[in-house]
Amino acid sequence: MAKVKKNVVVKGLSGMLGDQVVFKRDKAGRTILSVKPTFPEDRVFSQAQKEQIEKFREALMYAKDAAKTEAVYAEKAEGTPLSAYNVAVADWFHEPEIGEIDLSGWAGQAGEPIRVKALDDVKVERVTVLIVDAEDVLIEQGAATQENGLWWVYTTTQAAAGRPKVIAVAQDLPGNIARMVAQIAKEQEAA
Asked: What sign does the CA torsion over 69, 70, 71, 74 have?
């Protein structure tokens, strides 16, 4: 990609020239020159393409409001060529991740911590922890609180016997979710 600095001919240009060349300006003030896009009039979209177009439409609808109401998008865009709107659109397509469920401080008793490491490209909005028994019957569930940076902590309210499973669910601003399941180690088995 060629970069031209301080060019009096293209500085500040935007729009189309001769129905062939498109000039655009980004947030950083750069002028971008491209060929006018062309599409065949008889093109047919596959089902996967139609689904992606619909997802993109939903992302645009989300970003239209979220870029104005969620300050974190403007913060993430600051100092980059992206706008808050661009960051919100990208966030729509990016699910959060759960890196780890730390059960080292939990022995199946009430009042013990379960730690969850959750991250997202913009912000993890909430983390919920569910504890189920061997037959997947819910023992308890609740919201974890953010401890520092990536870690969220849930303090158990009930004792859980046997080898219960812990399910962590992380959600980001657009509502994308990630899940991870962990089970208490055999040698830690709750009494």
From this structure: negative
d(CA 131, CA 113): 12
| Token pair for 70 | 């969620």
Contacts of 30 (CB under 8 A, 6+ apart): 81
Task: Please report, rounded to a whole number, the percentage of residues in the chain having pLDDT higher than 90.
Answer: 65
Residue 183 lies in a domain: yes
Do 35 and 67 lie in one domain? The reply is no
pLDDT value of residue 3: 64
139-162: average pLDDT: 94
Same domain, residue pair 112 and 131: yes
Number of structural domains in the chain: 3
What tens digit of pLDDT does each residue of 71-96 get? 999 999 999 889 999 999 999 999 99
Contacts of 95 (CB under 8 A, 6+ apart): 120, 172, 176, 177, 178
Asked whether the CA dihedral 23, 26, 31, 33 is positive or negative, the reply is: negative
